């Protein structure tokens, strides 16, 4: 990995905070919105860089978990900040973002990593026990939180009643907690790359020449990570009206806003997973992908549920029939991929084509 602390990685969070102070609450002209958008993307990338530094310090599989949680914090912050000014039109934003995150991680990231690994190493190996369990947890949470509301009858529309929403939030937290326990304590060796020794997993990269950063460096990165997260959420709030106007201008459905949020926050996660796949460490890529999907559902749904109940905001969670089909196909193909413990470039192509189908349907429902 790159040097943990450089002028760029230190200055970017500070510059993002300054931009937030200047732009917050103002009606920005077009050029200023473009500048803020660039700073926002830079802050997201730097935020995950610092999460990687902290992750490198603690080692696998804790490292992948830290990255996933950091990305989810950004996601929740973006959803809440945009929903606060979106009114009823934002009622489906959480659903659209979480579903997009599942499709991006389980098809986009997994497919890209399989393609890179298959091209460079022909046949790639990973831990079927850990990956299959993680995928099962993702499919379970996605079905309970995003599919079930379409079919419940206590409340009208694709919604949960208050008690159902509380139950879904509790189930999400419990299952995410069990996953974290299994990944980091009980069956930690199931989530290590196949060539790693479970008793010597302190090096995230396992490159032999990359030493973990010092505790002092990790603490500085932790502080810069927090600063970056604050800046990302605030800057997103500042330019969210412009994003929504742009979506309307091109005639796309508002679900595209949720897809855009998920693509933004998962971009650095995608880069980290792709780098791991290039080093023939596909298990690390899977940890990042499925861990992000689980964190997206397991942490986002409870957070959105609390705000919805406290402020009585409308919350549409149920997927449409088309989206249910895509989710079901993702679960089927994903299961066939992870059960063998090995994969070739064909599986990567299948996942990427399924991801392309999701993007096309989002633009042309």
TrEMBL record:
Major subcellular site: membrane
Residues in Sodium/calcium exchanger membrane region domain copies: 31-184, 221-363
Pfam family, one: Na_Ca_ex
Cross-referenced InterPro entries: Alkaline_pH_Ca-Antiporter (IPR052946), NaCa_Exmemb (IPR004837)
Keyword Membrane attached: yes
Signal peptide: none
GO molecular function, one term: sodium:proton antiporter activity
Record-annotated membrane-spanning stretches: 7-25, 31-50, 62-86, 98-119, 131-151, 163-182, 218-236, 248-267, 288-311, 317-336, 343-363
Localization annotation: Membrane
Gene Ontology CC entries for this record: plasma membrane
Membrane-related topology note: Multi-pass membrane protein
Keywords (A to Z) from UniProt: Membrane, Transmembrane, Transmembrane helix
Name under which the protein is recorded: Ca2+:H+ antiporter
Species per Swiss-Prot/TrEMBL record: Pseudonocardia thermophila
């Amino acid at each position: 990995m790159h040097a943990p602390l450089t002028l760029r990685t230190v200055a970017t969070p500070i510059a993002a905070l300054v931009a937030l102070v200047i732009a917050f609450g103002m009606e920005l002209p077009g050029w200023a919105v473009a500048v803020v958008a660039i700073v926002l993307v830079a802050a997201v990338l730097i935020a995950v860089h610092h999460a990687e530094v902290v992750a490198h310090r603690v080692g696998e599989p804790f490292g992948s978990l830290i990255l996933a949680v950091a990305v989810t914090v950004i996601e929740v912050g973006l959803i809440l900040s945009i929903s606060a000014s979106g009114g009823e039109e934002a009622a489906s934003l959480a659903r659209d973002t979480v579903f997009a995150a599942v499709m991006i991680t389980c098809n986009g990231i997994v497919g890209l990593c399989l393609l890179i690994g298959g091209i460079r190493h022909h046949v790639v190996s990973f831990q079927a026990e850990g990956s299959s369990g993680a995928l099962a947890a993702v499919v379970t949470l996605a079905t309970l939180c995003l599919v079930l509301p379409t079919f419940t009858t206590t409340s009208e529309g694709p919604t949960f009643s208050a008690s159902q929403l509380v139950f879904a939030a509790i189930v999400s937290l419990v299952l995410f907690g069990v996953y974290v326990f299994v990944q980091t304590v009980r069956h930690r060796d199931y989530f290590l790359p196949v060539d790693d020794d479970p008793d010597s997993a302190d090096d995230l990269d396992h490159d032999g020449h990359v030493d973990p950063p010092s505790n002092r460096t990790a603490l500085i990165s932790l502080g810069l990570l927090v600063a970056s997260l604050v800046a990302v959420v605030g800057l997103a709030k500042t330019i969210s009206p412009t994003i929504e106007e742009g979506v309307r201008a091109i005639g796309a459905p508002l679900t595209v806003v949720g897809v855009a949020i998920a693509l933004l926050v998962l971009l650095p996660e995608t880069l980290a997973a792709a780098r791991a796949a290039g080093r023939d460490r596909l298990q690390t890529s899977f940890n990042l992908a499925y861990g992000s999907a689980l964190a997206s559902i397991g942490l986002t749904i409870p957070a959105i549920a609390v705000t919805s109940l406290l402020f009585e905001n409308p919350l549409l969670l149920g997927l449409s029939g088309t989206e249910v089909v895509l989710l079901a196909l993702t679960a089927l193909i994903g299961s066939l991929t992870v059960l063998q413990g090995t994969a070739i470039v064909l599986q990567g192509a299948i996942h990427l084509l399924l991801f392309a189908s999701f993007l096309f349907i989002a633009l042309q429902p």
